Structures are given as C-alpha cells and as structure tokens.
Amino acid sequence: MSNENLTPMMQQYMEIKKDYQEEVLFYRLGDFYEMFYDDALLASKVLGLTLTKRSNKQEDIPMCGVPYHVSDTYISKMLDAGYKVAIVDQVEDPKLTKNLVKRAVTKIITPGTFSDTDYLSVDNNFLLSYVDHGATLYLAYGDYTTGEIFTTSQTFLSQKEKSQFFMDELSRITPSEILYSSATMPAKDGIYYTHLNETLQKLLPEVRDVLNSDVVTSISKINSPALFMLINYLATTQKVSLQHLKAVHRYDPEEYMTIDETSKYNLELVASIQTRRKKGSLYAVLDNCETAMGSRTLRKWIEKPLRNKAAIISRQDMIKSALEDLMRFDAIRSALKQTLDIERLSFKIASEQLSPKDCVALATSLDQFTKVKSLLTASPDDVLHHFGEKIPDTTALSHLIQNTLISDPPVNLELPFIRKGYDKDLDELYQASEGGQALLLDLETKERKRTDIKTLKIKYNKILGYFIDVTKSFTDKVPEDYIRKQTLVGSERYFTVELKALERKINGSKERAIERQMEILTALRSTIFNALGTIQNVAEYIGTLDCLFSLAQVARTYHYVRPVISDTPQLTIVEGRHPIVEAMGRDIQFVPNNTSMNAETYFLLITGPNMAGKSTYMRQVALITLMAQMGSYVPATAFHWSLVDRIFTRIGASDNLAGGDSTFMVEMKEVANILDHATNASLILLDEVGRGTSTYDGIAIAWAITEYLVTTTKAKTLFATHYHELTQLSTSLSGLKNLSIAVDHDGDQIIFLRQVIEGASDRSYGIDVAKLAGINDAVIARAKIVLDEHENKGQSVHVDVPVQPTHNPVLPFLKNLSEVDINSLSPLESLNLLQKIVEGAKMNYDKYSG
C-alpha cells in the first residue's frame, strides 16, 4: 500500500518500521502498545491476542494491542518465543505541538538486554559477544541489569581447540543471547543469536558519552573487538545512560578449574539431570543465600572453581570465622534477609528512573548493610573485622532518602510522597491545595442553602474539572447564574463564576505542588546517581559475604569439614559423602566412603554390580574436589588434595541423532576430548567406557584407554567398569588399584552395602539386578543357563600389556601446529601463538622425555 493512502499516524508508523524489520514494533497509542500488519499477525499468535482491524482509505490494516502498564508480561513472552521488540514512544510533549506527536524507538529489547526483574530469574542474564579472528578467539560478556562486564582472549594452535574452548565457556556462561560477526559459529539450542554485519575496532563516539570514564579507560586498554561489539550493541539498543557498567574485568581461564559442558551436566552442578531445573543440583544444596546478589555470586563460584591456593584459603578462613561466632553469624544473616537486590537497581539509578518506592527500598537495604558492617567491625575476629571495614559507609545517603520521602510512597507520582517539613515551598503549595478543598466544601454547603437543593454536590473529573451536579427532579430550582456544562440521563451539570475561580486556585496549587515534588525527586535521583559507584561496591561485598555465609550455613547443617590443600599430588577423602544425595534423602542414612590417590596410585578401577553405587561414589569425589576449590567446606570427615586443573566426566548414555552421532560416537568423542586435554593435574571420571560396541571391541578400547591414562597422562582417574578383564592390569601397571562395591546375600537376593572396598569384584550381578527390577522368573532362569554355558566355554579375554603406548603421542601437537595459517596472524597474535608453541613443546617434553 502506498504511504500516500495512509493516515498521518500510519505514515509515521511505516517510516519507523522500515528501519526495524527484524523487531516487532510496540507502538504507543494512549494507554496501549499497538502492533500492525505482519507484526500484528505474528504477535496475535504468539501472545494469544484478538486480531482486529484498523480502518483505512483503501483496505483495513490488521492490528492488535496490549495495555501499556502490563506490557512487560507480553514482551517477555515475545522474547521467549525468539523475537526482539522495539518500543516506540512519544518523544515530545503533546501540549507543545498542534501536529501529530513525534514518536521514535526508545529501546530495543532482546533476550540479552531484558531488564524487568519481575520476569528475570535471580541468576545473571548474560549477553555474550564472540569474535573469531585467525588463531585468536575474543569473548566478552555482561549482564545489563547488574553492570558486570567480563572479557578474555585466547590463541589456539587448531580450530578444534578453539571450538572446544568456546563450547566450555558457553556452557559456563549460559548466555541468553550471542552477538557474532563471522559467517558461521558454533550453535547451541536455547540461545538467541544476533548477527552483526561488521566488527568495529573502537567504541562509537556517541557510546563514549553514555559510559563513565573508568569504563572507557578499561575498554580502551583491553582493545578487544568482542568488547567493542558488546558495548556498542548495549548502547544502540538501550538508548539510555550506561553509567552503571562497571570497569571491565579481564580474566584468564587458567585462573580457574575448567569444567566442560558434559561434566557440568553429569555432575548436576546447577541443574538436575532429570528436571533440568535448579532443584536437585549442587547449586540448590549450597544456596542458603539471603540475597539475590549472594545467589548470583554462588553460581559463579560453582561454575568457576579457583586454582589459586591463597584465594581458596581466604574463603575458608571467612567460613571458619563465621562458624566460630554463631550469634553474630545469625544476626548478620537476619539483617541480610531484609534487603533488596540493589545490584539490579543499578541500571535504574544510572538512567535516573528510580521511583519513590525504589528509593525507600534502597534506603532500607542500605540501613541493613550498615548494621551488617557494624556487626562485622565489632567482631574480635580479624577476618570478620577486616571484611567489615571494606564495606563502604552509606549512612548519609540512607538518611537523606528517609528524610526526603515518606515511608510508604504511592505508585502514582501525582499523589504526595515528599515528607512534610522537608521543603517549605512544597508544604505551602499542598496547604493551599488542601485549603481549596475546604473552600469547595464550604461552597457546596452555601449553594445547598441558597438553592434549597439538598442533593446538590460539587464533583470532579479529569475532562470537565469541577462542576455542580443537580438531579433532574431539582432542575427547576437552579438559579439563573448557573451555567449548564453537560446533560446526563438523570442529572444536569453546571458551573458558576465563583466555582471556576476556585478551581483555578486549587489546580494551580496542585500543579505547582506536583512540579515541585518532581523537582525534589529529580535532585534525589541525581544524588543517588552520584553515589552509584559506592552502591555497587556495597552490593559486591554483600554478595560475597552472603555467599560465604551461605556456605557456612550449609557446612553447619550437614557437618562439613575444612579441606586441606596439599603441595604434593594426592586426593585423600575420609568418609566422603555425596552432597546432593545426602541433602535430598535426609531420612536415609548415607554410607560414607574413603578415597585415596597419590603420586604412586592415581588410577582407581572400580567393579561391582549395577545400582550398587559406583556412579554415586565417583561423582561425590568430583563434587567434593570442586567444592573444595570453590573455597567451601566439604561433606567428609577429612579431605586433603592437590589442586585440580580440570574435571572430566564420561558418564551415562546419550546420543546426538540430530548431529548424526550415535550413543557410542558421542561416548568416543567425549573420551577423545579427555585424552586430548587431560593433564596429570586433572580429575577424570569414566563410567562403562566401551559398552556401546561388541564385547571384544569394548574391552580392547577400555584396555587401551586405561593404559594410556596410567602410563602417559597420569591424571587422577576413577574408572567404573563391568569388564573384569581390566582388573588384571593392576599386576602390570603400578599406578592402578582395584576397588569394588561390597554386596551381601540373603538367599537368592543381593543386598547393596554401598561400601567401596579394595580388590576386584568376582562378578557383575547383572542377572540379580535384573531380577530386582522385576524381570520374570522364566527369563531369569534362562539367563542363568546361558551365562553358565558361556563361562564354561572359557569366554574370558586375556591381553598382553605393553609397557608404553606404541603410537607417537607428540603427533597431535605437531598436527595442530601444521594447521596454523601464518598469513592471517597479526603481530600480537603471532606472539601469543609462539607462547602456545613454547608451552606445548615444554609440556610434551616433560611428559615424554622420561
């Protein structure tokens, strides 16, 4: 349809829409956001709205709409369905123009920039930026609602290593949206992808104006294209101040334990395998936080365990101090319980959009944080005392807010919310307005007496203003000086010269009062904005404190102990327990188990029946290790360990049919990743490797993997298997020890004792487990006969054990090196690549020279 045939308003709509083809336009008309044409057809289906039509000169236009005051509900649904939303609002005062009010896009809302805390979970809502440049991968990610920004860059010898690193980071960060500029990139379900046409190598000039100077400086120093892309995108979509963005944190993945996506899933770190929700995960067990800031901090710690000994001990010291002063500990947690998520108020503070209710809630929270600070600094414990001293003092700001605003401000900003006595001029204006109300009552009484109309009332509405209401039965008594204003079915409405003068006086005072009230609120918002850095510092300290106190509370509840870091290779657990199983089954006595690995014995081969607890035992070793490197106490009687660089798991059966991978192929790819990246400082869990193929193939693969890990990688490994043939490796491989799960018998029934003991199991008890599962007696009896026949034919397998692997283990390193495209490298990338080559050569020399 030609624009000439459209109304001026629809012409305005079409002019805006042509620049926002990918977004659904929410176009403000009165108290509604309206959608037209294809946007209306789409939104009506996604949101379940009634599709209507807007009359036009040539043809009707499809349209639908949502109420302005509940629009966030509908916007969140559009985002969940995979669409972006552009908000179109009035950008000029209707009173100042006689023409169509000017409108423009005031914000673009995407999955990674959605900021309504009523619809966001407590966890961070991250936006990730990805730039693949030659041998180097640049990443930047941030949470618009909290102001956090993180970035890193890594140089790789091969595309495979680069892709694996990205997928590991993607699993840890779990962003809602990814920005990318390359032609293709690794994809993952459940994430919104935004392709940008170009990667700018600098901040846009207009973007610098909406950032604070510290952030501009930190971005300029880092000089990352992914970071530029992220910040520019935030500025161009949000179209508001980004003063709340914190100085960028540049991190090195080597500072943290690496946990790939498979391990994160298998260990149920932040979500249960069964439900894919928080309940039933390690995160759920450890999250006793009283604040949202603490919960977000805890999740980050779970997904990024430390590799720095001093940092781990520092967290342990804080937990120890908290548990040694339980009265102070409980008082602090009680204070934290009464606070708001002030970290997520930061973007409202930056754009100076805080409502009076937000301001009062902020002040209440700051008061509680001041109480926490006082409790900490009054402690005789040095650790608590010093932490309390670091929390900034916000007493003056809190007092200013409370002295300015009433304790329970209304949502409607036209109603009074400034405390009486704070501003003399405002008090006088309200007094005049209230006095006018008294004069109205006096006038109403006087007119009743003068006219002898006992039902006469003076009323008000927004359209007519003040008027005299007279029912039809008394219109014959209306005086001549009454001027008719409106006729209704049952009454007539009038005004008088005296009423009009009084109305001007009342409205004048009320309008000036509202204006003065907003001036005071604006000044208060500005003062709070000037304290934004301090408020964010408080939030960061409180989040850390709440997280540590949550870990202390869990340790107190479940009787966890402080682990001890060893400088020599070992992993020794005394009476270890699985934290999730223990927490989920409080009425069942958990059977604890010991684990012992060191420089001489680091490979534990575990045999025993299904359902006996092999997987639980292995997972608890990994979880205890991970918790220890978070700085947490652990579920054991004692734990001594040397720091772990990575945790790998190969547990359970799954396929990737959409990607063309069978269950066995997925298993082999996971094992390949482990063999390629594990070091002697890694912890590996293997469960039933090789079971997806024939018996002889499976045994051969499992045998070769075991040899390689014991003789070459020398990582701490727990390998659960039903291939009893592997147990004979303990006689020839000095680093390997056999363990088994103890069982007992009650007639034909087996009883799982859940106890891990030294030595190999003599059988797998598969038929016994099948019987427990309910397989009928006829099948069980036949299975026993078949088993006896195979065992009597001597179907056992014997393999000679070579002392060393026969292949050249340096070949993968050389292959990666040969694939590097030297011509695509910048000078800095060349230096980074050279560093990788030196590190790789040193690692291979140290591993294989002996």
Automatic annotation (TrEMBL):
Residues 682-698 form the DNA mismatch repair proteins mutS family domain. This is DNA mismatch repair protein MutS. It comes from Peptoniphilus equinus. It comes from the Bacteria. CDD domains: ABC_MutS1 (cd03284). This protein is involved in the repair of mismatches in DNA. It is possible that it carries out the mismatch recognition step. This protein has a weak ATPase activity. ATP binds at G608, P609, N610, M611, A612, G613, K614, S615. Belongs to the DNA mismatch repair MutS family. Keywords: ATP-binding, DNA damage, DNA repair, DNA-binding, Nucleotide-binding.
